[in-house]
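tokens incoming
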């Protein structure tokens, strides 16, 4: 595979709070390739949104800071780049669909004007040209009566239409990379499907790379080519999407899958929740962050951080159960899960 469009290596982000320092992102690494969709998956608070905010240079300073790591867009380093450089990247080379369009869109400006601002800044278009292009973009994201809608304010639009406006803003300057942070949150199932179909169509037409943030494995199954599973600010498993669904290699990934309803079983299968809560990131555990919730945790898990085992090409898992000397679970949902793995260092 060719060089990734986006390379994130050992990214670490901290926030100063009244209660201490929160280690929100703790050594995250992943790659996003041209024309493919990478899904960042995990529970709320696992570091997904903070990671992409760091990629975009949107971490508020203070209280936040990037303490280590590298973010390269097509070979260009973004960590430590000046605001002038980041200003030319944001909106132009990287577009972002924020989680809640009602709070992300400016309530005092028409949606058309918000799009034309971006076009004037990055594309140098005149007011007339930008207006025409904004209407065209609203039509491309399948908003009916685009010329009329361009003169309306966000509160006059439905949730689905506001999300489409956010997509139009994100793609206005033909970015190479599109970051979608929970793009279907608070939408009903029908509108959710329409938004996901729109994103797939835009990706195919424009050869976009997409980084999709979600906790919904159903969305992952529909959209993703590659997946990185985050837990407590770390990547615990990564690889091709079909591999993670067919043969999950980390107990947390298996737990997420077990909590997902299976439509083929007609709702008869009992869902298995993940007991407990994520660790306190004011003082993260020295070993595996998932150890206290893991049904197969060993003594080493609490004190020693497992490496990312290379199971096969592009499929990695951070779990001591992949060690050749690990005692394999004799019963329960993890029984037989780790047998016959090819182990690496």
């Amino acid at each position: 595979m060719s060089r990734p469009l986006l390379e994130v290596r050992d990214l670490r982000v901290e926030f100063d709070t009244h209660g201490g320092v929160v280690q929100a992102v703790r050594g995250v690494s992943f790659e996003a390739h041209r024309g493919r969709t990478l899904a960042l998956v995990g529970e709320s608070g696992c570091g997904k949104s903070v990671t992409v905010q760091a990629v975009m240079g949107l971490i508020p300073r203070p209280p936040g800071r990037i303490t280590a790591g590298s973010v390269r867009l097509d070979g260009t380093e973004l960590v430590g780049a000046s605001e002038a450089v980041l200003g030319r990247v944001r909106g132009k080379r990287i577009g972002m669909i924020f989680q809640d369009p009602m709070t992300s869109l400016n309530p005092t400006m028409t949606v058309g004007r918000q799009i034309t601002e971006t076009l004037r800044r990055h594309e140098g278009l005149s007011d007339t040209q930008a207006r025409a292009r904004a209407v065209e973009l609203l039509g491309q994201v399948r908003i009916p009566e685009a010329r009329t809608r361009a003169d309306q304010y966000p509160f006059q639009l439905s949730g689905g239409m506001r999300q489409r406006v956010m997509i139009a803003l994100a793609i206005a300057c033909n970015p190479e990379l599109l970051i979608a942070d929970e793009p279907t949150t608070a939408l009903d199932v029908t509108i959710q499907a329409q938004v996901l179909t729109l994103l797939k169509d835009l990706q195919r037409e424009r050869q976009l790379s997409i980084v999709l943030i979600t906790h919904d494995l159903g969305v992952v199954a529909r959209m993703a080519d590659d997946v990185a599973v985050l837990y407590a600010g770390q990547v615990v498993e990564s690889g091709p999407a079909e591999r993670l669904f067919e043969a999950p290699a980390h107990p947390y990934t298996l737990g997420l899958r077990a909590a997902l309803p299976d439509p083929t079983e007609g709702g008869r299968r009992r869902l298995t929740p993940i007991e407990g809560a994520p660790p306190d990131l004011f003082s993260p555990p020295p070993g595996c962050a998932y150890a206290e919730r893991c049904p197969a945790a060993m003594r080493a898990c609490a004190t020693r951080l497992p490496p990312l085992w290379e199971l096969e090409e592009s499929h990695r898992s951070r779990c001591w159960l992949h060690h050749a000397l690990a005692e394999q679970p004799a019963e329960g949902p993890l029984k037989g899960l780790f047998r016959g793995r090819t182990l690496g260092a």
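note: The chain has a mean pLDDT of 90.
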